[in-house]
Each structure stands twice: as structure tokens, then as C-alpha cells.
Design brief:
This protein is an alpha/beta fold. It folds into 3 domains: about 5-95 and about 180-190, Periplasmic binding protein-like II (D-Maltodextrin-Binding Protein, domain 2, 3-Layer(aba) Sandwich); about 95-170, D-Maltodextrin-Binding Protein, domain 2; about 200-280, Alpha-Beta Plaits. Helix content is about 30%, strand content about 35%. It is built from 9 helices and 15 strands. It has helices at about 20-30, 45-50, 70-80, 115-120, 120-125, 140-150, 160-165, 215-225, 255-270; strands at about 10-15, 35-40, 60-65, 70, 85-90, 95-100, 110-115, 130-135, 155-160, 170, 180-190, 200-210, 230-235, 245-250, 270-280. Strands 1, 2, 3, 4, 5 and 11 form a 6-stranded mixed beta sheet that branches. A hairpin with a 3-residue loop joins strand 3 (about 60-65) and strand 4 (about 70). Helix 8 packs antiparallel against helix 9 (about 255-270). The radius of gyration is 20 Å and the shape is globular.
């Protein structure tokens, strides 16, 4: 790891011990010199605030899922901050249906989980109707609610976290799609520079000018510099009706002179641009 990952390292993640974010955090920071202190928090905003205010050195932020797509709240909060992505971790997600005791599907009245997990398990929720789905701050919070509530309550979460709480496993692999993964980004206060021989991805957010062909002009920069875009999505720009923020990922390192020049050209064509981070990637194309 780079210079920004020196001790003391205090990492905050979403949920409680054994949550998917916690599993990703411990894997990314394993072997950190001097050890790492991990702390679970209850919201994306709390994670970013802890780092922005200096109460933690890093946070692990879930940002994209292979089934449910981009996690829009995480992207929007990150774009509004001054923090930087310095790494990413891919977390396998194997959702299970659990309860405080053995339950038949017909006896389940409510299913708790994080909104993303609920979105990833639509077929299961359809089968469990008329049981209602209720969102919680994290999958581990859902499991804790079920342990406390009992009765006809069930939750969607990881088998590891369920076992830790002494819950009963009702059904495994309940996500709509196999090979379900969540991409977590490692966020800290200052950007980090990586050598040019390190395969990197760059994430950025931009808004275009109000003129014909504005987005095409911006995208032309990537074509001109032969930069491969791996993601392009739009979101409404908060506080600016009918304006949009475009989130982009591309293969490249802003430390590379040609990529840096491309960013300068892009800045001149956009009405607003923020590089969210340029960092070693685990999701780049393989030759």
C-alpha cells in the first residue's frame, strides 16, 4: 500500500462486525503495519463525515453492485465531499434468509434488510408476499432487529453475521443473480499517487454546459486520447433543477501525462468536474 496507509489506521465501515463492508475492510487492510482499528457506523454520510472530520483515516464505502447497479446515495455524497478514492475491494455477496427460530415461509410477516440487499432479492420477496419488506441501515442491523424482535420477523444478510448472532438459517443464496458482488471503494482525505506501472482506474463526476452537443464534446476527449470508458451514468444534480451529474470511470492514471492532459481538456469543456480518485483497480480488463 502507499504512503497514505501508514499507522495509525482507523477504518470505518457500514454496519457491525461480520457485515459485508466489514469483511471487505479486513481483507483490504490485512497485514497493515501496526494493525488497524475497525469501527462500524450506521450510514454512508456517517462514514464520509468521520473521514472528512478527521475522526477516522479511511472508510469503506459500498458504491456498486453487480445485481442492483450503482448505489446512488453513496455516489452523490462522495461527489459533494472533498474526499478521494484510493483503492477498491470486491466483496462476494451471498445473501441468506434468516430468522430467530425455524420458520415456514407462510409464517414470515416482515423481512428486514438494507435497501440494496432488498433490491438484490426481488424474487425472494415476491415469493414471501404478503410479508412486507422493511429497510434498515445495514444488513447486520437487520439481523440484530430479528434477534431482538423474534416472532414472524426474518432478515436478509450474510451467513457469517447470522451465525455470530445465533440466528437460524432458513434459505441460502437468495439473491436474484448468481455471482453477486459489491464494489467497495476505500476513501480518505487526500488523493494518493500511484506509479505508472500500477493498473489504475479513475473515477470522476462532471456536469456539462447548457449547449448543443455538450456531452458529446466531453466524451470526445476520451476518444481523442484513446482512453477506455468503463462506466457512464447520469444523476439529477441536487439543487439544480433539470441539470445532471455524469459519473464516469475510465482505465487510466492521472499521474500519466497524457491522462492529465485529457483531464485539462475535459475541464475546459465541462461546466463542473471533480476527480473522485485515481487508484489501483481490481475490475480492469484482463489481456
Amino acid at each position: 500500500m502507499g504512503e497514505s496507509l501508514k499507522t495509525p489506521t482507523h477504518v470505518v465501515y457500514l454496519g457491525a462486525q461480520a457485515s459485508y463492508s466489514h469483511l471487505a475492510a479486513t481483507r483490504f487492510f490485512q497485514g497493515e503495519p501496526g494493525g488497524t482499528r475497525f469501527e462500524g457506523l450506521t450510514s454512508f454520510r456517517a462514514l464520509l463525515d468521520a473521514v472528512g472530520q478527521g475522526r477516522a483515516t479511511h472508510c469503506v464505502l459500498p458504491i456498486e453492485n453487480t445485481t442492483a447497479g450503482s448505489i446512488n446515495d453513496a455516489y452523490d455524497l462522495l461527489a459533494q465531499s472533498s474526499l478521494s478514492i484510493v483503492g477498491e475491494e470486491l466483496q462476494p455477496v451471498r445473501h441468506c434468509l434468516v430468522a430467530a427460530r425455524p420458520l415456514a415461509h407462510a409464517d414470515i410477516s416482515v423481512v428486514y434488510s438494507h435497501p440494496q440487499a432488498l433490491a438484490q432479492c426481488g424474487a425472494l420477496l415476491e415469493r414471501l408476499k404478503p410479508a412486507r419488506a422493511e429497510a434498515t441501515s445495514s444488513t447486520t442491523a437487520a439481523l440484530e432487529q430479528v434477534k431482538k424482535q423474534g416472532g414472524g420477523a426474518a432478515a436478509i444478510g450474510s451467513a457469517i453475521a447470522a451465525d455470530r448472532l445465533g440466528l437460524t438459517l432458513l434459505e441460502e443464496d437468495v439473491a436474484d443473480a448468481p455471482n453477486n458482488h459489491t464494489r467497495m471503494v476505500i476513501v480518505t482525505r487526500e488523493p494518493q499517487t500511484f506509479s505508472l506501472d500500477t493498473p489504475c482506474k479513475t473515477s470522476l463526476a462532471l456536469s456539462t454546459k447548457h449547449e448543443e452537443g455538450a456531452l458529446l464534446k466531453c466524451l470526445g476527449v476520451f476518444h481523442d486520447h484513446r482512453i477506455n470508458l468503463t462506466k457512464l451514468e447520469s444523476r439529477p444534480r441536487r439543487g439544480q433543477p433539470w441539470e445532471y451529474i455524469f459519473y464516469l470511470d475510465f482505465e487510466g492514471n492521472v499521474a500519466d501525462p497524457d491522462t492529465a492532459q485529457a483531464m485539462e481538456e475535459l475541464q475546459s469543456r465541462a461546466s463542473w468536474l471533480r476527480v473522485l480518485g485515481s487508484y489501483p483497480s481490481k475490475t480492469l480488463r484482463t489481456p
